[in-house]
Amino acid sequence: MSESGSLAQGVNCPVPHSTYDRVQLGHGSGGKMSAALVRERFLPLFANDTLAQLGDAAVVDVAANRLAVSTDTFVVQPLEFPGGNIGSLAVHGTLNDVAMMGARPRYLSAGFVLEEGLPIDLLDRIVEAMASAANEAGVPIIAGDTKVVERGKADGVFINTTGIGEMDPGFAPAPERARAGDAVIVSGPIGRHGIAIMAVREGLEFEVEIESDSANLCPLVESLRERVGGAVHVLRDPTRGGMASALNEIAAAAGVGVVLEEERLPIPGPVLAACELLGFDPLYVANEGILVAFVEAARAEDAVAALQMHPVGEGAAVVGRVVDDHPGIVALKTRIGGKRVVDMLPGDQLPRIC
Amino acid sequence: MCLGIPGRIVEIDRDGGLPMGIVDFGGVKREVCLAYLADEVAVGDYAIVHVGFAISKVDEEEAKRTFEVLKEMSELDELEWMKEVAEKSLGPEQADAS
Amino acid sequence: MKYLSEYRDGKIARGLADEIRRAATQRWVLMEVCGGQTHTIVKQGIDELVGEAVEMIHGPGCPVCVTPLEQIDRAMALASRPDVIFSSFGDMLRVPGSECDLFQIRARGGDVRVVYSPLDALELARRHPEKQIVFFAVGFETTAPANAMAVWRAKELGIENFSVLVSHVTVPPAMVALLEAPDNRVQGFLAAGHVCTVMGWTEYEPLARQYHVPIVVTGFEPLDLLEGILMAVRQLEQGRSEVENQYVRSVKREGNRPAQELVQKVFQLVDRQWRGIGTIPASGLGLRPEFADFDAEIRFGLEGITAEEPAECRAGEVLRGMLKPNECAAFGTLCTPERPLGAPMVSSEGACAAYFNYGRFRQATRSEA
C-alpha cells in the first residue's frame, strides 16, 4: 500500500490497488468497507486537511459576509464521453454556477450514489477527473458522502456537488440588471457538449470530431471582473436547454427583449453537421464550457478582448443585443433577413425525419 | 419525408449482405446504406442521405451550373440597386456617369 | 457543409426575393407540400420576405401530423407491452394519442427507443432476441425505401422478433383531394424534393395538365425554396402549368428506380386515413401478403383499436391549408406544444408548431405596429 498524498507529489499514482474490482453494497454500509473505500479511493486524490479529518461536517473560514451557494446533481449517460466524464462535469458545473454570480468559489462538497457492480477502475477515473478539475481551479473538496444502492437502481453513479463562493460587492451580475443596448456576448463555440453526448448514445451512433467543452469558467469571470467590472450586467452558463433557454430565462426575469444575429453565432462545422443530421437547432444544445455575458455596449469590445485572453475564451464574440421591444421574447435575425422567435422548448429536442 | 442531408462518401464496403458506406457530413461521419445507389457511386462522390439510406447521388455539375446562375442574378441585382441609390442621390445623368 | 451551406446565402436570397416581387403582377397563392419545407419557410421568414407577391399555404406533408389517431393508439398499446421494445423516429414521441403519448408510456415503464434509421431497429432485434422489436414505420415515399429494406432484410435473415407498425402515405392523392375540394385556393405547388428524389416527377405531369397548376419540384434550403417560388410565379405569370425541377442536384425525372422496385416488392397501395382529412383512396402503403408476418397489427391483434378526435382540434383544416394556425381559436390557448390537441402542434414539421415556435414574434410586432 502506498502512502496517501496528492497527485502533485509525483508520477506514481498514490491510489492503492484495490482488492475488489467492483463496488459492493457493503461499501455503503458505514462500516469497515465504507471506511476503506473512502480512505483508498477518495482521500488520496481529494487530498486536503479538512477532508482528511473526516468529521461529521467540515468547518472552514470565509472572508466574505455574503456567500453564493450552488448545488447540482449529475446523472449524465454515458458516464465517460469525449472530453470528460461525470466527475469532471460535476466539478466544472458547480464551480461555474457559483462563478456566474460573480462570486469566487472557495469550497466544494461531493456526494456519491454508487450502483452495486460499478467497476472500481471506472470509479477511479471519475474521482481522478474530479480531483484534477478541483486542483486546477484551486478549490478543495472538503466534504463528501457515499451511498451504494442495489444493482439496477442508479445507472452506474450519480454525483451531487455543492459549491460555496465568496460574493464580491463590486461585481454582482444578475438578470435584473440587463439593460436595452447591452451587447450579448458568448465566450466560445456553441453546441459541443450536447452533440458529443448524443454521438455516443445508443441508437444514434455517429462519429464526430467534437468533444464536450466541459471546463472551469472562473478564469474568464476573473478576466471580466478585472477588465470590465460592473459593466458586466448578467452572466449565465447555458447548460441544459442551450443558449435559447438561458436567454429566455434572462429576458423573462429582466423584462427585456433580446435579438440574436444568426450570422454571428459561433457554431463549429461538426456541430452544425450533427444538428442537420438529427434535425436539431444548435441554440437548444447543451454547453458546459461557455458563458453568456450581457455587457454595457460601450465596454463590449473590452469584454470580448478580456475573454479572448484565455484558451477557454478563444472564440468569444458579440452575438446580439438587448432591446426594449418585445420584452421577455428572444428573437433571431436570420441570415436571409427574416426574423423569428427563439422560444423555450417544452422538453428535449427529438431527432426528426422530416 | 424531408430531412435529407448531403455528405461525401469516404468508404464503401460491398462485401457484406448490403452495400454499406461511411459518409462524412462536414465533420460528422455515419454508416449509410448504399443499396439504392449500388454501382453508381465511388468514394469521393456526394450523396443525399435520409434515415441512414443514400437516396440520390448529388449531380455536382448541375449543382455548380445552377448555383452560378443564382449568384449572377444576385450580382446583377446588386448593380441595379447601386444604380438606384446613385440616381436618387445624384440625379440620373450623373448616376450614369459614375 | 457542402451542398447545404451555400444554399443559405443571404445576399442571393435577397436577390431572389427581389426577382419574385418584380415578376409578380398580382398576389399568387402557392402551397408547399412538405412539412420540412414549411419548417424552413417559417423559420427563415421566407413567407414574410415574399409576402407581397405570394401567399404561402402550408400543405399536409407532415407524415407525423397525418398519422391517424388509431395508429397512434395502437403504438401506445404496443409500447405498453412488457415483451416489446418499441422503436420510432424521434418525431413521433410527443404526438398525442387519445389518452397519452409515447413519452408518458416510457415514464410508466414502457421500453420506447428513438432510432435514426430503420436498420437500427433491425439491429435492436438482433441484439435482443428475447424481446419483440416493433418499429413505427411512418413516412411519405421518401422513407418507404428505408422501411421496405428493413422488412426485406428481416425476412431474408429470418429475424422473427421484428415487426413494423405501418403508417405510410403518398403525396399525389392528397394533392388531388386538395385540388378537388370546392374551396381550393391553391394556384401552384412546390412539390417535395426528397419524395421526388425517390419517385421522380412523372406522377405529377397528369396533375399539372388536368388541373392547370404549375408544379415545381423544390429542395429544402432557403435558396431552393425561393428559386422554386420564383419558377412557380413565372409559370403563373406566363399562363403555363408544367412540372419543373428546381432541385436538380438531387432529382431526376425517373427518380430512384432500385428504391421504387424494392418498395413495390414489399408494399402495396392501400386506402389510408389522413388525420384531420379523412380517408383518401389508394393514398397509403401497406405490407404485401408475403410480408404479413412482419405486420405488427396482425401479429399483436390490434385491429380492434379505434379512436375519435377531440372536437376543438381543427388540424384537418390547417393541413388542407384552409386555416392558418393562428386563426384557430384553440391556438396558443387550449392547444400549445406542452398540451397539444393535435399532431400539427407537436410535430416539428407541423404548421401549428412552426407558427407557435417561430411565428409568434410576428403577431407580437403586428399588434405593436
> Radius of gyration of chain C, rounded?
21 Å
- The largest beta-sheet of chain C arranges its strands as 4-3-5-6-11-10
Beta strand count of chain C: 11
- Binned, the helix content of chain A reads 25-40%
Using the CA coordinates, give the radius of gyration of chain A. 21 Å
For CATH, the homologous superfamily of one domain in chain C is named as HypD, alpha/beta domain 1
Q: Numbering strands along the chain, what is their spatial order in the largest sheet of chain A?
A: 9-11-7-12-10-13-14
Report the top-level CATH class of one domain in chain C.
Alpha Beta
Largest sheet of chain C: 6 strands, mixed
Q: How many strand elements of chain A?
A: 14
Report the portion of residues of chain A in β strands: 15-25%
Give the structure's gist in a few sentences.
Chain A has helices at 32-42, 49-52, 86-99, 120-137, 192-199, 218-227, 242-254, 269-278, 300-308; strands at residues 67-74, 80-81, 84-85, 104-115, 141-149, 157-166, 183-186, 207-208, 232-236, 257-261, 292-295, 317-323, 330-333, 339-341. Chain A is α+β, with helices and mostly antiparallel strands and 354 residues long. Residues 1-11 of chain A have low confidence and may be disordered.
Structure overview:
The complex is a heterotrimer of chains A (354), B (98) and C (369). Chain A is an alpha+beta fold and 354 residues long. Chain A is 27% helix and 22% strand. Chain A is globular. In chain A, helix 3 packs parallel to helix 4 (120-137) and helix 6 crosses helix 9 (300-308). Chain A folds into 2 domains: 13-166, PurM-like, N-terminal domain (60s Ribosomal Protein L30, Chain: A, 2-Layer Sandwich), CATH 3.30.1330; 175-341, Phosphoribosyl-aminoimidazole Synthetase, Chain A, domain 2. In chain A, a hairpin with a 5-residue loop joins strand 13 (330-333) and strand 14 (339-341). A 7-stranded mixed sheet of chain A has the order 9-11-7-12-10-13-14. In chain A, strands 1-6-4-5 form a 4-stranded mixed sheet. Chain A has a two-stranded antiparallel sheet with strand order 2-3. Chain B has 98 residues and is an alpha+beta fold. Chain B has 2 helices and 5 strands; from the N terminus they run βββββαα. In chain B, strands 3-2-1-4-5 form a 5-stranded antiparallel sheet, with no helix packed on it. The mean pLDDT of chain B is 84. Chain C is built from 16 helices and 11 strands. In chain C, helix 1 (10-23) packs parallel to helix 12, helix 2 runs parallel beside helix 16 and helix 7 runs parallel beside helix 8. Chain C is globular and about 65 Å long. Chains in contact: A-B, A-C, B-C. The interface between B and C is large, with 40 and 57 residues. Strand 8 (207-208) of chain A pairs antiparallel with strand 3 of chain B, so a sheet runs across the interface.
